[in-house]
Inverse folding.
């Protein structure tokens, strides 16, 4: 049976936007402003699964992903670190499945 390629998402950025974990961008002329995540436009269940997966890993083994979470927590705070790590987890998942 030949390999059938599924083209649901062309890139990991599309997957994170689908989940509502991408940052919103407002543009005016040559100015770009990046804001909060686009959770109102995303799939709530996928976003919830990604965030809960990160929460389950928080107190586990030291992995590069958890080191990223710890660094983001120190720099940006708990909530932003949680969303950034969930976005990175979705990107890793996309690359593995691709």
């Amino acid at each position: 049976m030949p390999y059938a390629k599924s083209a649901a998402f062309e890139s990991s950025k599309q997957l994170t936007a689908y989940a509502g974990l991408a940052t919103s961008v407002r543009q005016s002329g040559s100015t770009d402003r990046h804001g909060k995540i686009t959770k109102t436009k995303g799939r709530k269940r996928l976003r919830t699964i990604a965030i809960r997966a990160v929460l389950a890993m928080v107190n586990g083994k030291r992995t590069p992903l958890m080191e990223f979470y710890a660094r983001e927590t120190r720099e940006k705070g708990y909530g932003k670190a949680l969303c950034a790590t969930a976005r990175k987890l979705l990107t890793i998942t996309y690359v593995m499945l691709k």
